[in-house]
Amino acid sequence: DIQMTQSPSTLSASIGDRVTITCRASQSISSWLAWYQQKPGKAPKLLIYKASSLESGVPLRFSGSGSGTEFTLTISSLQPDDFATYYCQQYNSYPYTFGQGTKLEIK
Amino acid sequence: QLQLQESGPGLVKPLETLSLTCTVSGGSISSSSYYWGWIRQPPGKGLEWIGSMYYSGSTYYNPSLKSRATISVDTSKNQFSLKLSPVTAADTAVYYCARQDIHGSGSYSYWGQGTLVTVSS
Question: pLDDT truncated to tens, each residue of chain A (107 aa)?
């Protein structure tokens, strides 16, 4: 199985901050990586697919980059609605695997 | 607008069978453009992929479930289902069904709201 490791596990930030979350794969997954946002009691929401493509309707402040084994999700200017937990997921090969999550908290 | 809705018992006894159904509305489950999957999330923990199926019946499972999972489709009802047997307390989780877009994003762009299944006697 491909292991996905996110860092940090928790991130404290303020409104307007630029934040970056990192996801590392245990082997190359090319660009087959997605990022999801999840709020308490809700289903995950797709933000980024194929490592850097923005899902329709997702604000432009979200961006993704990387390929191979190193990936990042960047929020350029944090808004109140962005405080949530973020997960990366590889879909290069079965079984699909998720990172352990990064909880973005208000500082 | 595509919608997915999970349904099934919220409480299952240990060693019995967990059975859930995902009803798809606003789109056809028989489309060649999608895979249909199940993902779960234990309370307070992260996401775990359970498995996926194609409308033709092809299935893929997470080996961590040790062959306990079965995903099937009923195209006449536009539904797909998950059976997990036998269950233990470790299978207590919110279960989500989701659609994977093969030709577009390649990832899970539509999710059901999730249903909590508790395994307890």
Answer: 999 999 999 999 999 999 999 999 999 999 999 999 999 999 999 999 999 999 999 999 999 999 999 999 999 999 999 999 999 999 999 999 999 999 999 98
Distance from CA of A35 to the nearest CA of B (A): 9
- B62 conformational bin, left if phi > 0, alpha if psi -120 to 50, beta if neither: beta
Closest residue of chain A to B99, computed from CA coordinates: A46
Radius of gyration of the CA atoms of chain A, in A = 13
CA-CA-CA-CA dihedral for A83, A73, B47, B64, to nearest 10: -160
Residue of B nearest to A40 (CA): B44
| Strands ordered across the beta sheet of A19-25 | A4-7, A19-25, A70-75, A62-67
CA B39 to chain centre: 6
Nearest CB to A91 within list B47, B63, B106: B106
Residue A76 has which token pair?
Answer: 């350029």
Buried-exposed string A57-89: b where 16+ CB fall within 10 A, e elsewhere: ebeeebbbebeebebbbebeebeeebbbbbbbb
* CA–CA separation, B81 and B7 (whole Å): 9
Report d(CA A18, CA A31) in Å as an integer.
23
Q: Judge whether B28 and B74 are in contact, CB under 8 Å.
A: no
* Cα distance between residue B6 and residue A6, in whole Å: 29
